[in-house]
Amino acid sequence: MEAPVIVIALGGNAILQRGERGSFAEQYRNVRNTVTKIADLIERGYRIVITHGNGPQVGSTLLRHEAAKNIVPPLPLDACGAETQGFIGYMIQQALRNELKKRKMDKYVITVVTRVIVDKNDPAFSNPTKPVGPFYTKAEAEKVKEEIPQIVIKEDAGRGYRRVVPSPDPKIIAERYAIRSLLDSGFVVVACGGGGIPITEEEGYAEGVEAVIDKDLAGERLATLIGANKFIILTDVPGAYVDYGTSNARLITHSTPDEMKKIFDEGHFKEGSMGPKVTAALRFVESGGEEAIIAELDKLVDALEGRSGTHIRR
Ligand code: ADP
Ligand code: MG
Prior knowledge:
By secondary structure, this protein is an alpha/beta fold.
């Protein structure tokens, strides 16, 4: 029997820890720790596709472009997404390959610059909600708006003004066949980083759009479209809780899509954090996936073997 295919979605803490400024050395050190957990799975024979977030990294990239705009022209958001897929993929490729080599394993790691097709009529395009990039004062915000009239800037929870972009629902992973074929050739694949580069397709012509796709929702599309057996979302908490943040908080260890939907509708999972993880997990199982797991990064092996995390199956 072929070894099971697992898609792993890494949360922000796999690359950057709370309180860190985000130097390359800090990020690489975190990635080196993260890949030891992934190597444990590869050693057990699982075939792995890795995806990851890019929130803080693309924020820094936008800041760099903004700060240097009088010297070099800034890149659009889709190109910034590609930049971060590249450098984060590089860190994972190098750190994981070093770890596999140390364990005398004949396995190689490859990153795929991944585009994700979104619907150009997605309602998100007429209601941008996702804050990206630097904070501005009111005066700065007005000046940016004058320079680039098409961008939308909103007040962000009393912390200043920030650009907001649409967050459309991911539909199709454009590079799905390439990813599957690399996996079948024996590679460990890094793909769909930062939720992928959003593109729209009209009459067969693809074009990048200034938007951000949620990495957990894109991870589900990736897992479903390559036919993964399991989809595991790693984050900085042990799983999904009911009454999270109260003294009654209780970890959901095993659940079904129906039960999970009911808990979702009761408002237990916060929008923008646990909400999209649970939605992604539900979609995976409802699209025919065997099991979706939400777990803590440090507990990856325990989670996959059923001893930790939130497990959702039919
Ligand atoms: P990641 O970078 O891993 O996507 P997020 O911050 O987006 O991290 O999501 C994880 C966070 O979700 C947790 O740190 C926790 O604060 C928050 N959260 C909100 N609701 C819940 C819940 N019901 N159960 C567990 N965590 C929750
Ligand atoms: Mg998140």
